[in-house]
Amino acid sequence: QVRLQESGPGLVKPSETLSLTCIVAGGSISSASYYWGWIRQPPGKGLEWIGSVYFSGTTHYNPSLKSRVTVSLDTSKNQFSLKVNSVTATDTAIYYCARMTVDYWGDWGQGTQVTVSS
Amino acid sequence: SYTLTQSPSVSVAPGQTATITCGGDDFEDKNVHWYQVRPGRAPVLVVYDDDDRPSGIPERFSGSNSGKMATLTITRVEAGDEADYFCQVWDARGDLHVLFGGGTKLTVL
Hints:
Mean pLDDT of chain B: 93
Oligomer: heterodimer
Largest sheet of chain B: 6 strands, mixed
Structural class of chain A: mainly beta
Mean pLDDT of chain A: 96
Low-confidence stretches of chain B: none
Helix content of chain B: under 10%
Distance between the termini of chain A: 39 Å
Radius of gyration of chain A: 13 Å
Radius of gyration of chain B: 13 Å
Shape of chain B: globular
């Protein structure tokens, strides 16, 4: 059973960079069977896909966030990460990391609250 | 752009059946998936590929896809089913590959 756990600062200042890591246990991020990705939920709103990365390093991003987002793998640590540049209050959300099988998200982390505020 | 439409809320009494719908175009060409999101918990996949259930999900949860509308049905609703439910598709044609519906809040009266 794969387990995913998000880690990173809970508070980020406006205009700075949000950085989160997803630690994966019980499964290899080098597997060709899955994509790994990030999804967020702003307060009172729905789920929003941010971006995904494949074991090869191929990435796909939500067009509305693409200019500010980077998702990358660290195979040596079996983890992947998210960076969002130039954050504003609208980036305040619960951030989830997840594993995609074919075209659905079968495994999720618990989520981590990130607040953008000075 | 491609969108998925869900009703904002559904309310049912315990023991009754909850029906949550997700509207979109060309559903006959897509697999629809459903997630349960409860506060403070990891989201849970409850139905995938229109009508399949992951292991560990009760048989009370079922899905269907008519081509224009996908439906999540929860029979014998329990208090613990109270949550937000989101539908999701993969849209290979556009740049927004992973698309979620706006979510439906299920309230158990």
